[in-house]
Each structure stands twice: as structure tokens, then as C-alpha cells.
Design brief:
Number of helices: 0
Radius of gyration: 11 Å
Order of helices and strands: EEEEEEEE
Helix content: under 10%
Number of strands: 8
Strand content: over 45%
Distance between the termini: 11 Å
Largest sheet: 5 strands, antiparallel
């Protein structure tokens, strides 16, 4: 995970896959899977096993939130 601006703009990368996020503080979060793809609005949520999810992207384990 690379956070250019923590809480506002960050990127997850694994196995040649890149997922970008932007959050403007208004409650709207946008996600883009792959470079040059369209942005789409996602709602983050937690699962029962403590995974943090955005749309179809799930992060498990220790997730740096700051």
C-alpha cells in the first residue's frame, strides 16, 4: 500500500494488479482497478472476519489506516 495523501489518495498493488482510491472527505469514495480504467464509487465496509472491503476488493490482516 502506498498513500500519497493518507485518507485522501492511496494505491494497493499486488500480483501486477493496481487499485487506486480517492476520498474527498465528503463521504464519497472512488476506486479504479487498473490504470486507465474508469473510476467507480464504492462504499467501504468491514466483514465479520475483520476484513476491510471496498466494492469487490478485500484487505485482510493488518491494514495501515493512517
Amino acid at each position: 500500500m502506498v498513500a500519497a495523501s493518507p485518507g485522501e489518495r492511496w494505491v494497493l498493488t499486488w500480483n501486477q494488479q493496481r487499485v487506486e482510491f480517492v476520498h474527498d472527505g465528503s463521504g464519497q469514495m472512488m476506486m479504479r482497478v487498473g490504470e486507465g480504467e474508469d473510476w467507480r464509487e464504492v462504499q467501504p465496509f468491514w466483514t465479520a472476519d475483520h476484513s476491510l472491503c471496498w466494492g469487490s476488493v478485500f484487505a485482510t490482516g493488518d491494514v495501515p489506516l493512517e
